[in-house]
Amino acid sequence: MTPLKSTQNPSLNALEEQLEFSNVTNVREKLLPLMDRLQENPPLRMIILKHGAPQAVLMSYQTYDTLKKLVDTLVKNNDALTQQQRVDAAYARLRAERGSSVRPAAEIGVNLDAQVEAAKVILNELQNMLAESQTKIQKLDRVLVQERTVAG
Q1: The domain containing residue 56 runs over which residues?
Q2: Which of 6, 38, 52, 120 minimizes the number of CB atoms within 10 Å of its CB?
Q3: Is residue 17 part of a domain?
Q4: What is the pLDDT along the chain (152 residues), one digit of tens a residue?
Q5: What is the greatest pairwise CA distance in the chain?
C-alpha cells in the first residue's frame, strides 16, 4: 500500500492527507487487516487500483456515514435554492471552468423568472384551447350519434 501524505505534496487538501493506494490483489490478500486499520483510523481511505487505474474506494463506515450526511445536507441546501440562484450558481461554475467569455444571463437581457411566467401563461392558454376543442369534439360526436339514430 502506498500512502499519499501531505509531506510528499504540500498542495494536498485535508481529504487527501489520509489517502492510500493499493492494487486489487493486495486488498484481496489483506482485507481483514485493512478493515481493522480503517476502524482504528476513520479518516483513512484506500483507493483500490486495477491495472493502475482507480476503481473503488474502501473506507470505514463512520467515514461513509459522515460523507453521506454531508451529501444529504448539500442536496437539501441545493433544493432550497430558488431557480434564479441555481442559474447563477451554474453560471459561476461555468465561468470558473471556461473563463470570462461566458456572460451572465442578466447581462444579456435574460430574465429567467419572466420567461418562466410567460411559459406558464402560454401553457394555461394551450390548456384552455385544448379544453374548448374537447368540448367541441364531444358536441360533434353527439350530433353524429343523433344523425345515425335518425337515419337508422
Answers
A1: 2-62
A2: 52
A3: yes
A4: 555 443 344 444 555 567 788 888 888 898 999 899 988 988 888 898 988 888 999 998 888 888 888 888 887 776 666 777 777 888 788 777 776 665 655 555 556 777 777 788 888 888 888 888 888 888 888 888 887 777 76
A5: 96
